[in-house]
Structure formats: C-alpha cells, structure tokens
Amino acid sequence: MHRTESPRTLARLAALVAATMVVSLTACSTTGDGDGVDAGDAASSSPAGPQASGRPPAPGPAVEVETVADGLTIPWDVVRDPDGVIVTGERGSGTLYAIREGGERSTVEADFGEVYDRGESGLMGMALAEDFVTSREVYTCHSSAEERDNRVTAWTATEDWSALESPRVLVDGILLSDRGLHSGCRILVHPDGTLYVGTGDAFTGPAPQDLGVLSGKILHITRDGEPADDTIGDSPVLTYGHRNVQGLALRPDSDQIVAAEHGPDVDDEVNLVLAGSNYGWDPNAGGRYDQDVPMTDTRDFPDAVEAAWRSGDPTLAPGGIAFLDDPAWGEWDGALAVAMLKTSQIVLMALSEDGTSVTATATILRDEYGRLRSITPEPGGTLLVTTSNGGGEDMVLRVRPAAG
Q1: Please, which pLDDT band fits residue 43 given cuts at 50, 70 and 90?
Q2: DSSP letter string over 234-303?
Q3: Separation of alpha carbons 176 and 28, rounded Å
Q4: Quick check: helix, strand or coil at residue 135?
Q5: DSSP string, 28-48
Q6: What is the CATH topology of the domain spanning 10-401?
Q7: CA distance linking residue 39 with residue 347, whole number of Å
Q8: Is 92 left (phi over 0), alpha (psi -120 to 50) or beta?
Q9: Where are the beta strands (DSSP E) in 9-132?
Q10: Across all residues in the chain, what is the average pLDDT?
C-alpha cells in the first residue's frame, strides 16, 4: 500500500488510486439513522440489484436462535474474546457487560466520563485487538459530553473483565451534533493490526466533502492512532463523501472491506470503494444541511464512485454487518449478512467475486425479534446479533444455521 498525495482535487483522481478495496452498503433515513423514522424495508431493482421495488427478499436458510442475554437497552455492538466471554455495551448508559457461558453477567468498569446520549450518540462501536490474547487491548468509540466530540479510545481489559484500564485516545475531534445525529461509529480491526473507523457526518452540511474534517468518512489508522499508509496525505481519512457509516466487515480471503451506512430516504447502495475516493454525498447548501440531494452526486462530482447496487425507494436501513464463513450456511456461505433496523430482519447478500455487484438476496429472522442492530461472527459459523428496541427489551442472540 502507499500514501495518496493530499489535496481536495483527489475527488478527480480517486479512480487512479490503487489501494485497499472497500465495499460500502448505504441505506437511509429521513433522520439519518434508523433510530427514528427511518428507512423503508426493501430494495428496488437496479443495474446490480436483484430485488424488485417494494418486495422483501425471499426467505433464507433455516436458523436456530438462542438468547445469550436479555434485559438490555440498545446494545450497540458486541464482541467475543478467545475464551468465549461476550462483551456488549448500552449506547445510552455507557454501561459495559461481560457475559460468560451459562449467562453469568458482570459489569465492566470503564471511565468514559459523561457519555453524550442524545439522539443516535453514546457508546457505539467496540472491537478487540488482533493480538488480544497477549495485549488485552480493546477499542471503543463513544460520544463525549465533556469534550463535545466522538472519539476512539484504546483500553486494556483486566484478565477477569472487571474493568477497562489505561485509556489512550486514538482519534478525537470527530464532530458531535447538538442533537446527537449521525455519529457513526463502527470499528473494524484488520488482521494487520490497523483499525478502520466509520464516522457519520454529524448532520453538518460541509463535513462529508471537507478533507480537513473527520466526519462523513472512513478512517484508517494504526493502533497508535497514526494515519495508515494508504490514507489521504497526512490525514487518517481513507474515503470521504459518506453520510453515516454503521457497519464494517472484512470479506474472507480477500482485501475487500464492506461498510454499511445510512443514506437519505432513498437509495441504499453497495459500492466498491478505493482508498482516496469520493462517494458523492454532499448535503452542503451554503452551510445548511440539505438532505434532498443524491447519495452519489455525479453531477457535482463526476469522479464520485458509482453504486454497484442501489435500493431505490423504499430503503433497507442497515446496521452492523458480517460475512458468513462456514460451510454449514450452505449456498449462503460467504454471503454478507446485514442487520436491519426498521425492517427487523437480517438480509443476506451474495456479492460477485470482485465485489462490484449483489447477485442474490435472502432474509432471516424477519419480524421475529424487532429491530436488529449489530452482527458479530463467532468461531464455528454462528453469529452474535443484538436487538435495538429500547426500554430494557433488548437481547444478545446467537444465530446458527439449523442442523440438517
């Protein structure tokens, strides 16, 4: 990989950048998140999209579901350590829980300060370091009321998961809106130890196209918080022109990364993304936020990356994502699993080999557990899935393909 030379004219040069490939799935909400009056529940046909407008995907493979934990309120993300301890955190309260085999639950102490819990903000993404077994390093993204920003922090987990200690801020200054809208914020740890961070545009018009701002971007940093070697200039910005990134996943046996984000109230997208590229979201109307613009605006940005797949109207409202990676999933092994908020399902998407199109879709868990927020793969092909219904009604679920 190499570093791209910086200036804003990269919007015209992005297609020439040879770098890490990322796939971005975008979806939609009039408020931007799927936490309020959000996206619709199906995708329309498009040059690369197999679904017909207004029709949900066909039923997918049979699955079995067990409840790992309940009584939670919007557990935004979930991780599993090598010993099988599951850790999740509530977005609004900022409370972290460690869940052991048999359902034993304990609180994980962590000094986030005052968590800004308005709108879509609070304690969001969480990930474990690639070398967690030896380093015990954990990464979080949260909204800080004291600093009035969104920030990524590295911690050291105690051996018994009683606390996260020795915090180091890796990225700060990610915009935080007064209403708490469009805060992102998903973290993906790559096998090389670097971190990808998906941010929202903070409902701020100029942010997505401003390379001097970290919002409306996908960032790529080292574990020390320095820009990785494929970013734009001396910035941690990898790609820009995004709206509200909610999911990141590495496609097995490839260098493709998939990112799920909320767009406006039409046109979810699946995009093949190159480092340094512009994805064409520009809600800036003289400093005012105007959502009545294309998700990929190729008129104002001729070199913006075109969508490989788009939903049309209505939309899907994606949250977290993960790839299925076990033969037990049968024909869907290798598909992208996308948690849906308003549409209350997981949609499976088969991607073409080069990641430029979606060739088939199917749905599981439709209308069974309410809004679904996050997906984390486990060894053996199972998935940890969090619900997002609020009011102490949320759960961490374990989903596996049905036997036989």
Answers
A1: very low
A2: TSSEEEE--SBEEEEEEPTTSSEEEEEEEESSS--EEEEEETT-B-----EETTEE---S-SS-TTT-TT
A3: 20
A4: helix
A5: EBSSSSSSSSB--S----BTT
A6: Neuraminidase (2.120.10)
A7: 14
A8: alpha
A9: 21-28, 58-59, 63-72, 75-80, 86-90, 96-99, 105-108, 123-128
A10: 87
The CA radius of gyration of the chain, in Å to the nearest whole number, is 19
Between CA 187 and CA 152 the distance in angstroms is 9
* Preceding peptide of 167 cis, ω within 30°: no
Q: What would the DSSP string read from start to end of 347-365? A: EEEEEPTTSS-EEEEEEES
Place of tokens 């804003």: 8
Strands 63-72 and 75-80, by their bridges, are unpaired
Beta strands 21-28; 256-263: pairing state? parallel
| C-alpha dihedral (252, 257, 263, 267), degrees to nearest 10 | -60
Give the N- to C-terminal CA distance of the chain in Å, as an integer.
44
Would you say how long the chain is, in residues?
404
Quote the CA–CA distance of 34 and 130 in Å, as a whole number. Answer: 30
Q: What letters, b where the CB count within 10 A reaches 16 and e where it falls short, cover 335-350? A: bbbbbbbbbbbbbbbb
pTM of the model: 0.90
Nearest to 276 by CA among 4, 26, 1, 7: 4
Q: pLDDT tens digits for 310-339?
A: 777 877 788 999 999 999 999 999 999 999
Amino acid letter, residue 278: N
Phi, psi of 329 (to 5 degrees): -80, 0
**Strand partners for 392:** none
